[in-house]
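In this section we walk through a basic example: taking a raw amino acid sequence and producing a predicted 3D structure, encoded as discrete structure tokens. The instruction is simple. Fold the sequence below.
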Amino acid sequence: MTTTAPAHHSATAPDAGGGAGGAVGAGRAFAWTLILAGAAGLVAAWVISVDEYKLLMGKITGDTFTPGCSLNPIISCGNIMESDQATVFGPPNPFIGLFAYAVVVCVGVSLLTGARFPRWYWLTFNAGCLFGVAFVTWLQYESIYTIGALCLWCCLAWVGTIVAFWYVTGYNIKQGFVPAPGRVRSLIEEFHWVVPVLHVGVIGLLILTHFWYFWSR
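The resulting token sequence is shown next.
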């Protein structure tokens, strides 16, 4: 039997007899959140990948290519693309993002069609989102404090990653796949949007304060 709760990441209840390990689906709002978060990252990864290609071809042909989002010394996508951090796993980071964000979109679309996944699937998906948010947190630190520049498309991907991680984590806590006190589950049900908003807000505040010397000129 399925029920729909009013919360953002409302989900169908586990199958009878399945308990916390039964396959479960999710409400449309949660599914659309995943689709939009994944799409944001996918668009950002695609644009950066195209610029990476143009930058590489420019080096081969001897031409100079400046990405359209390189607006000033701080908002400088070119500096980010040419940094060591941009290829930490070998391939350029946005190439990896094309795959990772596509997975998030596919999960969201599957949920819209009524797909139901078992506990191991949700936990594996959550682990992937955890890796993603940990990776972008490192990239945020490197971008702000080591490279000293920002890529607007990267920032869009950061937001998509943060939103996906916190909503998937909240969903798993709500379903009982991740153990948590009942009060925590109730708070997540009522205020599911607070933590991702605060997370994005903290990043924005760090950017604002670190580069205040530039913004205030």
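Looking at the output, two observations stand out. Confidence is low (pLDDT under 50) at residues 1-20. The two ends are 61 Å apart (CA to CA). In the next section we compare this with other chains.
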